[in-house]
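Summary of Year 1 activities. Much of the first year was spent building the evaluation harness for sequence design. The harness presents a backbone, in tokenized form, and records the residue chosen at every position. We chose the following record to illustrate the format because it has been used consistently in internal testing since the harness was completed.
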């Protein structure tokens, strides 16, 4: 699941509320070199407007034509047909070439009309509350069921039912609002992170918030903010103030949380000194300290704040994708919504 898929569902919901008919298309299987992984989502409005992608542009035009053909006019109102259907692309070499699928890749998709939007509203509410949710679609009837699931639940498709997993948006909490934080925040927003900034120093925070769109300021001391945020496996935390009074207390909480990434600005010498402080004065375990990325960022030879920001976000994305890869192959589990 990517944040993009949540945006697709939000668009689909808004279109239905406006009285438009909508079809959802989900990638269920791929072979060869496929541009988008299983679970990727596309929404097509009755007039052909789309949100999302299932092939990176290879088959979208054909899908739009197919989807529009599935709508019929009843008293001047476009309505979708009632049941989901399977679509395959690139089964033959000729078809793969026709649709531009790379390296002979092929796709199997489930196309479904969005009739009842209740499940979309519920799913978006659960993910906004940072819950993982599995959505099961029965192809024969179009019935949808939602279940909260633990980390490690994977997409499943057996030909008759499709279960896809939707998780919360990835969060990036920055401790500090200086020039480097501004650059990191900009890149984080571009990558669709929910970017949060905590800096009790009003002089820094005011400048950041005045010039940044899509960034939220968290009031309070950094350690209190981290604790109240309850970081989960979709949360990254980076300390960038260079002030031990602010950074260390935030890291103390972050290293004992479920955050998938914890990093701190500073040289190797400063990092060793920080680890000694945390171990000697706060009894932080060697295992917890081993989670700390510092000096923060990939070794790119970065010099300017923008280059350093690229190295930091690149390391966060590297860690995020490693977590996502693990999650996709882990054993599934679930429990039923009350």
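For this record, the design step produced the sequence shown next.
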């Amino acid at each position: 699941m990517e944040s993009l898929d949540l945006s697709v569902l939000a668009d689909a919901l808004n279109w239905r509320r406006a009285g438009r008919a909508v079809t959802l298309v989900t990638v269920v299987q791929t072979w060869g070199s496929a541009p988008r992984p299983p679970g990727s989502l596309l929404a097509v409005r009755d007039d052909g407007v789309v949100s999302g992608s299932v092939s990176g542009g290879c088959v979208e035009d054909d899908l739009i034509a197919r989807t529009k053909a599935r709508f019929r006019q009843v008293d001047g109102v476009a309505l979708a047909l009632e049941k989901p259907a399977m679509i395959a692309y690139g089964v033959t070499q000729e078809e793969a070439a026709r649709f531009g699928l790379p390296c002979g890749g092929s796709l199997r998709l489930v196309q479904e009309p969005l009739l009842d939007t209740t499940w979309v509203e519920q799913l978006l509410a659960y993910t906004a509350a940072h819950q993982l949710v599995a959505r099961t679609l029965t192809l024969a009837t179009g019935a949808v069921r939602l279940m909260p699931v633990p980390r490690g639940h994977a997409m499943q498709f057996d030909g008759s039912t499709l279960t896809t997993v939707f998780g919360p948006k990835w969060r990036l909490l920055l401790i500090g609002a200086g020039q480097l934080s501004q650059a990191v925040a900009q890149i984080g927003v571009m990558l669709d992170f929910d970017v949060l900034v905590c800096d009790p120093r009003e002089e820094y925070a005011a400048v950041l918030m005045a010039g940044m769109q899509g960034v939220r300021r968290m009031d309070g001391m950094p350690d209190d903010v981290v604790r109240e945020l309850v970081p989960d496996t979709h949360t990254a935390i980076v300390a960038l103030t260079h002030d031990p009074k602010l950074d260390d207390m935030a890291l103390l909480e972050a290293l004992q949380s479920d955050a998938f990434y914890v990093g701190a600005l500073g040289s190797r010498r400063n990092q060793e000194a920080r680890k000694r402080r945390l171990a000697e004065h706060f009894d932080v375990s060697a295992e917890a300290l081993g989670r700390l990325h510092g000096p923060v960022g990939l070794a790119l030879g970065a010099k300017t704040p923008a280059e350093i920001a690229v190295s930091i976000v690149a390391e966060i994305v590297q860690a995020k994708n490693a977590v996502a890869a693990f999650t996709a192959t882990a054993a599934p589990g679930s429990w039923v919504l009350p």
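Residues 91 and 106 are 6 Å apart (CA to CA). Quantitative recovery figures across the full test set are reported in Table 2.
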